[in-house]
Amino acid sequence: MTSADARRAAASVLPQGVWDFLEGGSGSEATLAANRAAFDDLFLVPRVLADVSGTRTAATVLGAPAAMPVGIAPMAYQRLFHPDGESAAAQAAETAGVPYVAGMLSTYALEEITAVCSRTWLQLYWLRDRVLLTDLIDRAEAAGCTALVLTVDVPRMARRLRDMRNAFTLPPDIVAANFPATATRSARRGEANTSAVMVHTSEAFDPTLTWNDVAWLRGQTELPLVLKGVLHPEDAARAAGLGVDAVVVSNHGGRQLDGAVPALNALAAVCAAVEGSTEVFLDGGVRGGTDVLKALALGATAVLTGRPVLWGLSADGQRGVERVLSLLRAELEDALALSGCADVSWAKGLTVVSGNVPLSSASVRRGPRW
């Protein structure tokens, strides 16, 4: 089995509009495609004669142990893909021993998710309704969430043409369970050439979010704070200076600025800018264990994976997600051993090279392990 098998299984069961909501990007989907192409263009230079008889995938992520340096990215409205939605995905994360980032627009309430997953992080968008935002922060602390993840690359939702052409709306039984019952009413009003979800987010999200607000949020909670959607090294350094615990190098899976740099191509510069003062995660285009290893070799602490989880969820609920995560761990263990890495900490010693550049002193990145 590969993640491509899970993708085919999901495509066979989902309605076309839901499939497009899952798979689509913004604009011409150039950045969506580039995220994957960046991984395909990067190659590892394995080392030999290292004892890899006991290869280990275990890692420390935000100061907590994880079975591998992988977490599940925040994704909205997961009951669109399976009746058990976020509950199934979170239970699968618990079984796999990895963090689960609960989307603010989840179809199960936060407390229902933390009840089945001890490694739950809550994703936040910056809301016009500050009372609701503050309430969510308080609920996260009370429910036992272990981090907050503020998404910073959605001052407005981009034009996602698949959803607009489909006049995509939420079915009546799909609700944002962390919001008041009437909050997602606009996401059910269909209109030609319009995404109702885009209309709803324009009403709910506040585009005035600035660094002052990040500083305010940092002062509101003692939970680890993660900023998701950082691509510029200067932004990463500024986040670290404000006491942010981690940044996620991300272009929102190709769903925001079409033409934005692939996340993988921005990773090394971000890692250099923060100089180890904050953890650096990556999402966008991660499909297999070798992708995880490439991100680690470029300096990432961990990666977040999104669409493959929804493929598994769509195909077979919790068991489908568990299979996707189990496969990812097996592939990572295999990639570590075959590249000469006894554990994930060795990955930063690997050399990486662009596929269209000859291997030379000018074209490689070397780490300190060997």
From TrEMBL:
- Establish whether keyword Flavoprotein is in the entry: yes
Tell me which domain of life the UniProt entry assigns to the organism this sequence originates from.
Bacteria
InterPro entries membership: Aldolase_TIM (IPR013785), Alpha-hydoxy_acid_DH_FMN (IPR012133), FMN-dep_DH (IPR000262), FMN_HAD (IPR037396), FMN_hydac_DH_AS (IPR008259)
| PROSITE patterns per the UniProt record, alphabetical | FMN_HYDROXY_ACID_DH_1, FMN_HYDROXY_ACID_DH_2
Pfam families referenced in this protein's UniProt entry, alphabetically: FMN_dh
**Per the database entry, which stretches of residues form a coiled coil?**
none
Residues annotated as catalytic: 252
Which residues take part in binding glyoxylate?
125, 160, 252, 255
Q: Does the keyword Ribosomal protein apply?
A: no
Q: Please provide the record's keywords in A-Z order.
A: Flavoprotein, FMN, Oxidoreductase
The terms under GO molecular function for this entry are: FMN binding; oxidoreductase activity, acting on CH-OH group of donors
Q: Where is the FMN hydroxy acid dehydrogenase domain?
A: 1-357
State where FMN binds.
74-76, 123, 151, 228, 250, 283-287, 306-307
Q: Which family does it belong to?
A: Belongs to the FMN-dependent alpha-hydroxy acid dehydrogenase family.
What is this protein's name? Answer: Alpha-hydroxy-acid oxidizing protein
User: To which species is this protein native?
Assistant: Streptomyces griseoluteus
